[in-house]
Design brief:
Blueprint lengths: L1 E5 L3 H10 L4 E6 L2 H7 L5 E4 L5 H6 L7 E4 L4 H14 L3 E5 L3 H7 L11 E3 L1 H13 L4 E7 L4 E7 L20 E8 L2 E3 L12 E6 L1 H11 L7 E6 L3 H10 L5 E7 L2 H10 L4 E5 L5 H6 L7 E4 L4 H13 L4 E5 L5 H7 L4 E3 L1 H10 L7 E7 L4 E7 L7 E2 L9 E8 L2 E3 L6 E2 L4 E7 L2 H26 L1
Parallel strand pairs: 1-2, 1-4, 2-3, 4-5, 5-6, 12-13, 12-15, 13-14, 15-16, 16-17
Antiparallel strand pairs: 7-8, 8-11, 9-10, 9-11, 18-19, 19-24, 20-23, 21-22, 21-24
Length: about 450
């Protein structure tokens, strides 16, 4: 695909790293330092302003399949995306950082706007954190819309009944699969004899009903009211609290040091949310509030160092689950290695969301894990692939078929289930192993065709 990225910002650089190499990527940027970083990648840099018609033409926007507006200015992103729609057929993704832009263009005005998708990273992050909090014990939750598929990730802590057991002894319900383990820096596709250890991160995928049974094993008290403390009442903190208001089993507290922001939060949130005017990084205040008794503390201030400071103190106070925002995607792994349960970047989360919508020809990346070490991909099986039971296929190492989409139905397969022509596979795999599986299935198709030709010739 031909993709034009407007802006070599941190988000633009994340896009460039994700898409360059597999796609024909052009990036429009004028800042020398950003250009220097971009030139290290397999892409074309166009030096100039993305609102300039001459620059857009130089980037060949008219021939682009996708245009991503992620420059520093919301106004520039809106104008450049509108221009891209006028010049060609590109699917447009426009990033905004100000709430009023999103609220304006996502409302009635947005119905008449030519831009395909408006993205406010802070809103996506707030809603994503709420989605994770809705499953106590989980450190990641993903829902595959219209497919009756859900993904849950758990970290095995001391005292968890699964620690020390083999996977087969977990008696995973039918309709669910354990698709991956992350141990230290390794990605493991587990089998029945795989032993689980403390600090392993394990990922399950399956049908909603089966995944509810998985949830109950990691949350033995499903009816409990959950106490959530949010440090930082900015956009992310507000959206998180607003989203959690819809759940009856949450007791929510926001700690915000800006008095005007506290007043705004009080006006916009219901009485179910307690807004406190205080410095969330004041350890003595946190102790006085007995945060050690809360079920989750979420640090979402506008500063990575402050978020880390608060999160580490929450861990020292033995808070059950600690989540933090990392503005820089490079800090995610560092934060989690220090013991933070979940670290998330609004920028990285938004980039993943867009990349999922930019499809390739036969392999489509749905979700990336551990900063690119593993991923879920879609692979479409060729029409003349011979029906084959999973148990008879010696799949490449580092690959597991998590689901089969056939017609309007999704199958979470066992060994007896067959792969058939035209199936859409949901594959969990280590990095680059998706292509290996596609080649493996292609080879089986060719061998079957050759055998059929030889058999016909013999007759």
């Amino acid at each position: 695909m031909k993709i034009v990225i407007s802006g070599g910002t941190e988000i633009g650089l994340l896009f460039a790293r994700s898409l360059a190499g597999e796609h024909d990527v052009h990036v429009i940027e004028s800042f020398p330092h950003a250009i220097e970083q971009l030139e290290q990648l397999d892409l074309q840099v166009v030096n100039g302003n993305p609102t300039s018609l001459a620059v857009l033409q130089e980037a060949r926007v008219a021939q682009a399949d996708a245009f991503i507006g992620c420059a520093h200015s919301d106004e520039v992103n809106v104008i450049s995306c509108l221009a891209a729609k006028q010049l060609g057929k590109a699917q447009t993704f426009c990033f905004v950082n100000k709430a009023h832009y999103f609220e304006t263009f996502a409302g009635e005005l947005g119905e008449h706007l030519a831009i395909d998708r408006l993205i406010w990273p802070e809103m996506l992050l707030g809603e994503y954190i709420a989605q994770i909090l809705a499953v106590p014990g989980a450190i990641d939750v993903k829902v595959f819309e219209h497919e009756d598929l859900k993904l849950l990730e758990f970290r095995l802590k001391t005292g968890n009944s699964a620690v020390g057991k083999k996977l087969k002894d977990l008696h995973i319900p039918r309709g669910a699969l354990a698709v991956a383990l992350f141990r230290d820096d390794k990605v493991i596709i587990p089998g029945g004899m795989t032993t689980l250890y403390r600090n392993d991160k394990i990922i399950f995928m399956g049908h909603e009903a089966s995944m509810r049974k998985i949830e109950s094993r990691f949350n033995p008290d499903p009816g409990k009211t959950l106490n959530v403390v949010i440090i930082g009442g900015g956009n992310v903190g507000y959206i998180l609290a607003k989203t959690l208001e819809a759940y009856s089993n949450f007791r929510i507290k926001i700690i915000e040091k800006s008095l005007p922001q506290c007043q705004l939060l009080t006006e916009r949130l219901s009485d179910r949310v307690l807004v406190m005017h205080a410095d969330g990084s004041d350890v003595s205040f946190l102790k006085a509030q007995q945060v050690e008794n809360c079920d989750c503390l979420v640090a979402v201030t506008g500063n990575d160092e402050r978020n880390l400071f608060v999160a580490m103190h929450a861990k020292m106070l033995n808070v059950k689950k600690v989540m933090t925002r990392a503005h820089s995607a490079d800090n995610i792994e560092f934060f989690e290695k220090l013991g933070i349960d979940v670290a998330l970047s609004s920028q990285f989360n938004a980039v993943q969301s867009v990349c999922r919508q930019i499809s390739a020809d036969s392999i489509d990346v749905f979700t990336i894990f551990e900063k690119g070490k593993a991923e879920i991909r879609e692979i479409q099986v060729l029409a003349d692939f011979p029906p084959s039971r999973l148990m008879d296929l010696k799949l490449p190492e580092g690959v597991i078929i998590a689901a089969i989409r056939r017609g309007g139905h999704t199958i979470v397969p066992g060994g007896e289930d067959k792969i058939k022509g035209k199936d859409h596979l949901r594959v969990f795999c280590a990095k680059d192993q998706g292509e290996t599986l596609a080649e493996f299935l292609l080879q089986i198709t060719r061998e079957a065709a050759t055998a059929e030709e030889e058999s016909a010739g013999g007759e």
